[in-house]
Design brief:
The complex is a heterodimer of chains A (406) and B (269).
Chain A: E1 9-10, E2 13-14, H1 20-36, H2 40-54, E3 60-62, H3 64-70, E4 74-79, H4 89-102, E5 107-112, H5 116-127, E6 131-137, H6 138-143, H7 145-153, E7 157-161, H8 168-181, E8 186-188, H9 199-222, E9 228-232, H10 237-243, E10 253-261, H11 272-275, E11 277-281, E12 284-288, H12 313-320, E13 325-330, H13 331-345, H14 351-367, E14 372-377, H15 385-392, H16 396-405
Helix pairs in contact in A: 2-4, 4-5, 4-9, 5-7, 9-10, 13-14
Chain B: H1 3-9, E1 17-23, H2 29-41, E2 47-50, H3 61-72, H4 77-87, E3 93-96, H5 99-105, H6 107-117, E4 119-123, H7 129-141, E5 145-146, E6 149-150, H8 156-165, E7 170-173, H9 188-199, E8 204-207, H10 213-220, E9 225-228, H11 230-256
Parallel strand pairs in B: 1-2, 1-9, 2-3, 3-4, 4-5, 6-7, 7-8, 8-9
Classes of the chains: A alpha/beta (406), B alpha/beta (269).
């Protein structure tokens, strides 16, 4: 029924489906963003912290062993795993804390699934001396104990969420409820390109630095644009950041990889672009995993970062316009790529990223030699070792045995 | 008479409209009917039925928990339409629901189904006026009133837009926050009511956090309607439909003594 094309929408997707109480805060955020995004002082502060605090630019690395193994296109890693706190998440939280500070907000809230965004938020809140509250599904606080401790060390309060399905989507609900209640002095740093307008656009803009660096590095390293960029997609912030400068550019294939979990047919997955229907969740119209009656379904993925039942509205738009292609990879396949990358390249990737690595093999073979394929290595996998150890049956006993032999 | 007209006629000059809320399917599918019956007996002027949703982000813990339970009980939109049909010949029924439930059925089909079940009006917490233009038009064409929400943070421009779109009542959110029980009427509520009145012709009902007959009476001095949700759901949980009904009767009594302080409705004889 909607034909609206105006700011806040990506084609038919996006919008601002939120309680009236929040509209004012969203307008205030939008105004602040418009005021500061090109302000030289703001840009300078963001640039210098990106360099000194985050460690940007992150390198573009030639993955020679995977290239050799797959025998297709040259494989490159954009090393977001080397960014401070271990993933691309910091790009967004840093940008938003600068905005929050200029807006005079003294309190920061965030949601987190695996804890990466929570840690990235707690980190910048510490840097700017803000009070910080992170909402996290109760189940996740148990599974990701280490990240809970990290957040606490950084001075944040971690609130276990016990409502609804006690997962990431409920943590988002709880953060929104907090924001509705404390909107005067609180800024909500949402973790991905989701939520009501202007969030999907702001988060994307802060993540675009990945693609901008990649563009320059690609020219320098192989004299042109990559032939393909492959990135994992949960809600979709690392993918949109890597894709953005290349959208619509001829000869650059953009591939987003969703979580197929236990297989699309099982219904237990996080592939909302593949299997979702159009719907409204957390303030935006996009593809959503839901029942016939419109109840939101729980997503499943072995990687908590892809365990979200919707996708950012801009990805929905890119998919429908044919500007990017989306595929999905199962838990098992992701584990295979996780192990492969660790052993061949000496990099333990995040389980999220492992989805992209698995699918990249197919793309590399399709492209053939003399082409360049970039995998956005969105995060490192330290956070996942317990989950992987359990899934692969690696006990610490074995490790002791091995070290005993040596 | 169209549902929207019935709803408007529930707001009368001589008394404040009492609008109790129930979650469809809570505490059980049958229990929700009993709750509705108790409300009607206690003198409800409008019954508000919450259609349960998995992710009710405008609701506090009390109502969320009732929605979770209702979904476990198997409550869905069809059940809620049937539930509404059971009361609609006696009092106007308003649905409170989240937009995705409407969207999943298809807007036009939903409106036809709601109209034929006798639903008079719709409160949709996550459909602010910016997104509601076309929906409000379709809804009023279908004879189902659109009841937009306003909050203390709403600007005057937005209140004007609300005034244009409201074909039922304006739902005044008394505090910046989610639903829940609060002891007293928050200080900004009266000012908000007055601001809304100056911009909208539709009746104004106050909700979010009214937890005692005294607070209801205080609200009634300024508002055309009083919406009570969390407190009643709490009572249903503790004392069942009968207990909630008994408490609501006390509210009805407290409201009957209220002298309206100003506005288009004059004080009682």
């Amino acid at each position: 029924m909607r034909q609206k094309v105006e700011s806040g929408y990506f084609g038919a997707f996006g919008g601002r489906y939120v309680p009236e109480t929040l509209i004012h805060a969203l307008e205030e955020l939008e105004e602040a963003y418009e005021r500061y995004r090109d302000d030289p002082e703001f840009v300078e502060e963001l640039d210098s912290l990106s360099r000194d605090f985050v460690g940007r630019p992150t390198p573009l690395m030639f993955a020679s062993h995977l290239t050799e193994r797959w025998g297709g296109a040259k494989v490159w890693f954009k090393r977001e795993d080397l960014a401070h706190t271990g993933a691309h998440k910091i790009n967004n939280t840093l940008g938003q804390i600068l905005l929050a500070d200029r807006m005079g907000k003294r309190r920061i809230i965030a949601e987190t699934g695996a804890g990466q965004h929570g840690v990235a938020t707690a980190t910048v809140a510490a840097l700017y001396g803000k009070e910080c509250v992170v909402y996290m599904g109760e189940e996740d606080t148990r599974r990701q104990r280490l990240n809970v401790v990290r957040m606490k060390l950084l001075g944040a309060e971690v609130v276990p969420v016990v409502s609804g399905s006690r997962t990431l989507k409920d943590a988002v609900n709880e953060a929104i409820r907090d924001w509705v209640t404390n909107v005067e002095d609180t800024h909500y740093i949402i973790g991905s390109v989701v939520g009501p307008s202007p969030y999907p656009r702001i988060v994307r803009d802060f993540q675009k630095i990945i693609g901008r660096e990649l563009e320059a590095q690609a020219r320098e390293r192989f004299g042109g644009d990559p032939d393909a960029i492959v990135a994992c997609v949960g809600a979709g912030s690392n993918a949109i950041g890597a894709f953005h400068p290349f959208i619509g550019r001829e000869g650059v294939r953009l591939v987003g990889v969703e979580a197929a979990g236990r297989g699309l047919a099982s219904g237990e997955h996080g592939a909302s672009l593949a299997e979702g229907r159009l719907g409204v969740l957390h303030g935006a119209l996009s593809y959503v995993l839901q029942t016939v009656g419109g109840q939101i379904r729980e997503a499943h993925s072995i990687s908590a970062g892809l365990d979200y039942p919707a996708t950012g509205p801009e990805h929905a738009y890119l998919k429908d316009e044919g500007l990017a292609q989306y595929a999905s990879v199962t838990d098992e396949e992701a584990l295979e790529a996780f192990t492969l990358c660790s052993r061949l390249e000496g990099i333990i990737p995040a389980l999220e990223t492992a989805h992209a690595i698995f699918y990249a093999e197919r793309v590399a073979k399709e492209l053939g030699p003399d082409k360049n394929l970039v995998i956005n290595l969105s995060g490192r996998g330290d956070k996942d070792v317990e989950v992987v150890a359990e899934a692969l049956g690696i006990g610490t006993g074995e490790v002791e045995e091995v070290s005993g032999e040596g | 008479m169209k549902g929207s007209e019935r709803l408007r006629s529930a707001f009368r000059d001589d008394r404040v409209a009492l609008i109790p809320y129930l979650t469809g399917g809570y505490p059980t599918l049958e229990g929700a009917r009993e709750v509705g019956e108790a409300y009607v007996e206690a003198g409800a002027d409008v019954v508000e039925i919450g259609v349960p949703f998995s992710d009710p982000l405008a609701d506090g813990p009390t109502i969320q928990a009732t929605a979770t339970r209702a979904l476990e009980n198997g409550a869905d939109l069809d059940y809620c339409l049937e539930l509404a049909g059971g009361f609609a010949d006696r009092v106007p029924v308003v649905f409170l629901l989240y937009f995705n439930v409407i969207f999943a059925r298809g807007v036009e089909k939903f409106l036809r189904d709601a109209a034929s079940a006798g639903v008079s009006g719709l409160v949709i917490p996550d459909l602010p006026v910016d997104e509601a233009g076309e929906f409000a038009r379709l809804s009023s064409d279908a004879g189902v009133a659109f009841c937009p929400l306003v909050a203390p943070t709403s600007t005057d421009e937005r209140l004007e837009r609300v005034g244009e779109l409201a074909t039922g009542f304006v739902y005044c959110v008394s505090v910046a926050g989610v639903t829940g029980v609060r002891d007293a009427l928050p200080p900004g509520a009266v000012e908000l009511l007055r601001r809304v009145r100056s911009k909208a012709e539709a009746p104004v009902a106050l909700g979010f956090g009214i937890g005692s007959p005294e607070a209801a009476a205080e609200a009634a001095a300024e508002a055309d309607g009083v919406i009570i949700g969390s407190k009643l759901m709490q009572l249903v949980g503790e004392r069942g439909a009968e207990g909630a009904g008994a408490w609501l009767r006390r509210v009805r009594e407290a409201l009957s003594g209220v002298v309206r302080s100003e506005g288009r409705y004059q004080e009682l004889a």
